[in-house]
């Protein structure tokens, strides 16, 4: 028995009229080594802490513009972490650092010092920052390779 190649089937329709080369299949994404991933998470927590401290000081200094700048800075750290790691956990790390820092700064010290005063600005920063953290953690998941067209193709 000889192995002869079978003739290709003729196709009709829009797929047969392709004029360009086919798009190559996307290569799978290689995960980061565990040590590097842990280091990135630690750096993201530290960035969240820095965003929390800077925002706590900035939001009270220049009320409307400082509050907006503080929330935009926190959103940049949260969403940037998610996009950098390509997973929602990249947003969780800076969110945790920011939240722990802000909660620590809301407590009064024995000397009577505090960072957050009682006012609209402080409450807007705390609640707005939590809302931004939830939004960035929700939106932080990257889309599937190939996008919507690859999932709907027949």
From TrEMBL:
<feature type="compositionally biased region" description="Basic and acidic residues">
    <location>
        <begin position="15"/>
        <end position="25"/>
    </location>
</feature>
<feature type="transmembrane region" description="Helical">
    <location>
        <begin position="89"/>
        <end position="108"/>
    </location>
</feature>
<feature type="region of interest" description="Disordered">
    <location>
        <begin position="1"/>
        <end position="29"/>
    </location>
</feature>
<keyword id="KW-1133">Transmembrane helix</keyword>
<dbReference type="InterPro" id="IPR046095">
    <property type="entry name" value="DUF6113"/>
</dbReference>
<feature type="transmembrane region" description="Helical">
    <location>
        <begin position="63"/>
        <end position="82"/>
    </location>
</feature>
<feature type="transmembrane region" description="Helical">
    <location>
        <begin position="38"/>
        <end position="57"/>
    </location>
</feature>
<keyword id="KW-0812">Transmembrane</keyword>
<dbReference type="Pfam" id="PF19608">
    <property type="entry name" value="DUF6113"/>
</dbReference>
<feature type="transmembrane region" description="Helical">
    <location>
        <begin position="120"/>
        <end position="141"/>
    </location>
</feature>
<protein>
    <recommendedName>
        <fullName>Integral membrane protein</fullName>
    </recommendedName>
</protein>
<keyword id="KW-0472">Membrane</keyword>
